[in-house]
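ARCHIVE CARD
CATEGORY: sequence design from structure
SOURCE FIELD: tokenized fold
FIELD CONTENT:
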């Protein structure tokens, strides 16, 4: 019984999203996908958004960082 709860807890751990080696936030499982939580200013453009996969979240954060460099 305890082993099942440990496995379930493992799937709910946040995954760090890095761009250029810098951690910008985390994704956490939510509503059949992942919600992004920003921790650095360039990533706040996508803070709180829901993504179907970690990869799509990473692409969105990367784009936000690129766009912030243009301003």
């Amino acid at each position: 019984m305890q082993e099942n709860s440990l496995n379930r807890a493992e799937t709910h751990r946040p995954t760090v999203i890095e761009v250029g080696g810098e951690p910008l936030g985390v994704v956490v499982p939510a509503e059949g996908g992942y919600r992004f939580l920003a921790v650095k200013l360039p990533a706040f453009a996508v803070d709180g958004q829901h993504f179907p996969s970690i990869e799509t979240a990473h692409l969105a954060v990367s784009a936000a960082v690129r766009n912030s460099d243009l301003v």
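CARD ANNOTATION: The mean pLDDT is 86. Strands lie at 15-19, 22-30, 33-38, 50-51.
SHELF: design records, drawer C
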